[in-house]
Every structure is written in structure tokens, then in C-alpha cells.
Amino acid sequence: MKARLIACTVPGAAGSKDFYEALLGVKLGTAVARDPWPYAWASAGVKLTVGGEGWAGYGPMLSFAVDALDEATQTLMAAGGEVLQEGLQMTVPPDLFEAYAARYEEVGLGVAASVTDRLGTLTVIRDPGGSLIGLVQLEPYAEVFFEAGQLSSRDLNLHSAEVSFWNARI
User: Within 13 Å of residue 74, how many CA atoms lie on the same side as its CB?
Assistant: First the structure.
């Protein structure tokens, strides 16, 4: 199994947004999701989300992209993991989809027609020590969001543009 870290979700509390903005040196945007939590790209291809009580009240969660979700899930279960939720569809809210697809093309990520209302499928696993791991099989178009590489001025400029764009709509 090959996995790459793509996201970290930490619980949010009063002052958390300011804390993580100070840590990263960027303004956090608003995630395009059912629960619009603040986020920023924390490292090359890794998104930090600050929100709620962590995933479903369980606390912080690291998410990893995998090519074969079922196989990766079975591998981690055999290694002592416990599945808490599986097959969760990560979707773009219907009222934001048209703007989301258009924005994908506008910023040079690809063709809007390749975008679907799904980002991928998520399975949440508790590791033997009690930590949460999210396994995500991304839709093909969404892979570009989490490509490996150094954060460049283009990445930071894109993040700033995305923060402005989505905060104006949410």
C-alpha cells in the first residue's frame, strides 16, 4: 500500500483560527464543505483544517490519499486498525458546484468539465493507539490539489485568491 499525507484536521476552539494563521503566516480560508471550517495549505500538498470537535468528536485526524481504498482499509484492519466509518462521500455542496468547477479551470488546474460533485471517498480508521486516520480515494480531477512538491509563490498566491473567492460566497 502506498499512501501520501494530504490533510490534517484539528479541533477548533476560540482563538484556534488566529493561532494557526500566526503559525502558518497566511490567512485561513473557508472550506467548501457542509461545515465550512477554516483551512490553509500547511505544506506541499497538505491541507490543515481547523474545525469543530475534530472528526465526529473524536479529535485530530490525519488523512492519506490511497489509490485503492478497499485494499488499504483491509491492510490497516489486518495491522490492528478499527474502521469507524467507511464509504463517506466527500462532496461539493450543490449550490457551490458551478462556481467550484469554473474556478478549477480559471486558476489553471484543469478543465471545468472534468470536475464532478465528488472530491473522493473517505474511510475513517482508529489506529491501535487511538489516533484517527482518514483514507481517501480521490476523484481523478482532485489529485491536482494534493500533488507533491515545494510550496511556491504560485501556491501561496493561489491560496490567497481561493480564500478571497470562497469567503465572498460562503
Answer: 4
